[in-house]
């Protein structure tokens, strides 16, 4: 997994080849203790969120994607993949991560804490 540091606060981590990401199917990406669910949406955009549902830790990369949302596979809570917010009537949120597509590859932007920076 390649790592590129941009500015001081984000580390861009190579996550997948864009062409090899199935549409509307999650992929789990791990980097230094963070576990992220990466999705290529039908619109062509790529979204990344914390991989664990705030309700009872359902694995969001295994959820069903519809438009800009993923449905948790455990109890079907619907989470917006742009904001990370659980949709009403349920409540909660998951962390969102920046993504970029560059030279056919998908990168996830991980916040770089002082301890990770070494
Ligand atoms: S664990 Fe996700 S809805 Fe319950």
Question: What tags apply to this protein structure?
Answer:
single chain; 118 residues; mainly beta; Rieske Iron-sulfur Protein; seven-stranded antiparallel sheet; three-stranded antiparallel sheet; 10 strands; 45% strand; globular; binds FE2/S2 (inorganic) cluster; 2Fe-2S; nitrate assimilation; Nitrite reductase small subunit NirD; Rieske_2Fe-2S_sf
Distance separating the two termini: 19 Å
Any idea of the CATH topology?
A: Rieske Iron-sulfur Protein
Largest sheet: 7 strands, antiparallel
Radius of gyration: 14 Å
Shape: globular
- If classified by CATH, what would the architecture be? 3-layer Sandwich
Helix residue percentage: under 10%
The fraction of residues assigned to DSSP E strands is 35-45%
Oligomer: single chain
Let me know the average pLDDT: 92
CATH superfamily: Rieske [2Fe-2S] iron-sulphur domain
| Content-based structural category | mainly beta
Major sheet: arrangement of strands: 1-2-10-9-5-4-3
- How many E strands? 10
Small molecules in complex: FE2/S2 (inorganic) cluster
Specify the number of helices.
Answer: 1
Which spans have pLDDT < 50 for at least 5 consecutive residues? none
CATH class: Mainly Beta
**Element pattern in H and E:** EEEEEEEEEEH
